[in-house]
């Protein structure tokens, strides 16, 4: 763990101070918890989201034959393909 220094405005400090006393913890722990939730997210939720993506396109007809699909993308130019969609 590394030590850092933060400058908090009076309103935020008072809110954190009150919350820390109510929860029986420190302002530092509240800030660490908030930073973890905001920037790391919940590990289990992230795993579940990744699992939900697995196989998401398996029922799309263009993916049944991936070689043919890729070759069709490489034919012509991008503007022509976009006009046809």
List its traits:
65% helix, mainly alpha, 85 residues
What is the element layout, followed by pairings?
Blueprint: H1 10-23, H2 27-40, H3 43-53, H4 66-74, H5 78-84
Helix pairs in contact: 1-2
Number of strands: 0
Give the overall form: elongated
- The N- and C-terminal alpha carbons lie at a distance of 53 Å
How many individual domains?
Answer: 1
| Estimated share of beta-strand residues | under 5%
Helicity level, as a percent range? 55-70%
Low-confidence stretches: none
How confident overall, as mean pLDDT?
A: 85
If helices are DSSP runs of H or I spanning 4 or more residues, what is the number of helices? Answer: 5
Q: How large, in whole angstroms, is the Cα Rg?
A: 25 Å
SSE arrangement, N to C? HHHHH
- Biggest sheet architecture: none
Q: SS-based structural class?
A: mainly alpha
Explain what this protein looks like in three dimensions.
- It is a single chain.
- With about 80 residues, this protein is mostly helical.
- It has one domain.
- It has 5 helices and no strands.
- It is elongated.
- The model has no long low-confidence stretch (mean pLDDT about 85).
Q: Briefly, what is this?
A:
By secondary structure, this protein is mainly α. It is built from 5 helices and no strands.
